[in-house]
Amino acid sequence: MTYKMIELVGTSKNSYEDAIKNAISDASDSIEGLDWFQVTEFRGAIKDGKPSEFQAVMKVGFRVLR
């Protein structure tokens, strides 16, 4: 088998967990067979002294169909 790996950045106003779920959900709408993910970085935005956005950078792997 051969796998392809892409990088995604998921975002959420609520949490890193939701940012991961959002990225995987959005990617699965256009990519078949997502098999795994690896979070490589957490980051976020600050507004008025409080976290305003959570961002999860991740690698996502899926099988290449022949």
Task: Give your account of this protein's structure.
The protein has 66 residues and is α+β, with helices and mostly antiparallel strands. The chain has one domain: Dodecin subunit-like (2-Layer Sandwich), CATH 3.30.1660.10. The chain is 20% helix and 58% strand. It has 1 helix and 3 strands, in the order E-H-E-E. It has one helix at residues 16-28, and strands at residues 3-12, 34-47, 50-63. It has a 3-stranded antiparallel sheet, with helices on one face. A hairpin with a 2-residue loop joins strand 2 and strand 3 (50-63). The radius of gyration is 13 Å and the shape is elongated. The model has no long low-confidence stretch (mean pLDDT 96).
